[in-house]
Design brief:
Layout: E1 6-8, E2 31-33, H1 37-40, H2 47-56, H3 60-63, E3 79-81, E4 84-87, E5 94-97, E6 100-103, E7 109-111, E8 116-124, E9 128-134, E10 139-149, E11 156-157, E12 162-166, E13 176-183, E14 186-188
Antiparallel strand pairs: 1-2, 3-6, 4-5, 6-13, 7-12, 8-9, 8-11, 9-10, 10-12, 10-13, 13-14
The structure holds zinc ion.
The site of zinc ion has 5 residues, from loops.
Amino acid sequence: MLRKILILLFISASAFAQYDVRKSVYTDADLEIEDYWETELSPISDQNEVVSFIHNDPFNYFFINNIPGGNPLAREISVNSFYGARLHPIHKILKFHRGIDLKGVNGEIAIASGNGKVTETGFKEDLGNYIKISHKYGFESIYGHLSKISVKKGQEVKKGQTIGKVGQTGKVTGPHLHYTLKKNGEYFDPFDFLFMNFQKSW
Ligand SMILES: [Zn+2]
């Protein structure tokens, strides 16, 4: 869609036009794309609509680092327990699991799944040691049962940055990373967001 605004920046060429050093191939460093996700993605609170917006946007590769669209562990993941209704392993009652449990070992690093700002760290009986990160466009990610918290409230973090260590604090039967994803206050199934590795498609 052509409402997207693209500005090609001719960084070096203008002042020395007679030498014509203009590039013939442009890289992402030459592009300045208006952050239209602020106006278009921010208001959407339905998970399917959000996922479809992101997958269908031709500039998704450009904005993806701003959202928790990645893996909170620094390796291939496997899922212990999915998002949704389940029999709680300790309480033995049917509970809605508002997140995903990723298999982990004590002491392995947990990383930020997207650029953002730490809004809260602490300990809760259920969640153990946890970190909350707020991201652009209304996203929030939460990391629980940590053995170590390496960031502080108010700190800016980059996607892939170490934020803590996996552990088994709180109500757990073994070490794992509990990972919650929210947007505009709504709980999302994080699974759809774990593997958003987009490449430029044009
Ligand atoms: Zn969990």
